[in-house]
């Protein structure tokens, strides 16, 4: 949690920006002078390479200028999204914990490539670049994940066979249950505002 002094229209104000997991803005608001602005943030680790996503949840007393200041700071290490605080546990499950899921999928694909006869170095290079390129397509084309997947999946082809196996293995259900477990755990770890 950081305390920042903000110059709004010539008035020096203080602002708390909290990256503390599980502590709602109300926790601070009930302990600070009335009207004190608090912004809760859920970042993720790709910010270490300038590609993170930080999600802002403004407290009751946050002004647009406060959000713009925090957005400007965090925008230097990735994208910034604003949501109501009631969605922070879901955000934690999707993007806060999300890099671990991505790395697990990469790890599984690399191991599978090695199992199919590739060297670990070649399998790693292929998986990493495939993920980088695929993420770039998803980010830049404007097409949905479903549209991009369908474009690669020829009827009766190799991709269709692989996707069929992933679906038969319950991939979507496993992801839903995993993210739901993360959201539930995030909520359980939180403190109350009182």
Verbal overview:
- Helix 3 packs across helix 8.
- The mean pLDDT is 93.
- The chain contains eight helices and five strands, in the order E-E-H-E-E-H-E-H-H-H-H-H-H.
- It starts with a strand and ends in a 5-residue tail after the last helix.
- It is elongated.
- It has two domains: 2-85, 3-Layer(aba) Sandwich (Rossmann fold); 98-185, ProC C-terminal domain-like (ProC C-terminal domain-like fold), CATH 1.10.3730.
- Strand 1 (2-8) and strand 2 (11-18) form a beta hairpin.
- With 194 residues, the chain is α/β, with parallel strands linked by helices.
Give keywords.
194 residues; ProC C-terminal domain-like fold; 5-stranded mixed beta sheet; 8 helices; 5 strands; 16% strand
Q: What structural category characterises the helix and strand content?
A: alpha/beta
Helical content (DSSP H or I, runs of 4+) = 40-55%
Class of the largest domain in CATH?
A: Mainly Alpha
Strand content: 15-25%
Q: Roughly what is the average pLDDT, rounded to an integer?
A: 93
The major β-sheet equals: 5 strands, mixed
Q: Look at the structure and name the CATH superfamily of the largest domain.
A: ProC C-terminal domain-like
Count of helix runs: 8
Rg, Å, rounded? 21 Å
* CA distance, first residue to last residue: 18 Å
Biggest sheet, spatial arrangement of strands: 1-2-3-4-5
Shape: elongated
- Which stretches are poorly predicted, pLDDT < 50 over at least 5 residues? none
- CATH architecture call of the largest domain: Orthogonal Bundle
**CATH fold label of the largest domain:** ProC C-terminal domain-like fold
Oligomer: single chain
Count every beta strand, where a strand is a DSSP E run of 2 or more residues. 5
| N-to-C series of helices and strands | EEHEEHEHHHHHH
Compute the number of structural domains.
2
């Amino acid at each position: 949690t950081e305390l920042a002094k903000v110059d709004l229209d010539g008035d020096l104000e203080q602002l708390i920006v909290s990256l503390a997991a599980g502590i709602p803005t109300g926790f601070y608001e009930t302990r600070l002078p009335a009207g004190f602005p608090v912004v809760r943030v859920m970042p993720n680790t790709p910010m270490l390479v300038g590609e993170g996503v930080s999600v802002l949840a403004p407290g009751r007393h946050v002004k647009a200028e406060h959000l713009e200041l925090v957005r400007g700071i965090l925008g230097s290490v990735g994208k910034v999204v604003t949501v109501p605080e009631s969605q922070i546990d879901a955000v934690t499950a999707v993007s806060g914990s999300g890099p671990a899921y991505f790395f697990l999928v990469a790890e599984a694909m690399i191991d599978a490539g090695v199992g199919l006869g590739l060297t670990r170095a070649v399998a790693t290079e292929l998986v990493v670049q495939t993920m980088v390129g695929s993420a770039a397509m998803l980010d830049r084309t404007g097409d949905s994940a479903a549209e991009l997947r369908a474009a690669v999946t020829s009827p009766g082809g190799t991709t269709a066979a692989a996707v069929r196996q992933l679906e038969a293995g319950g991939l979507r259900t496993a992801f839903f249950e995993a993210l739901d477990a993360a959201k539930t755990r995030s909520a359980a770890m939180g403190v109350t505002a009182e």
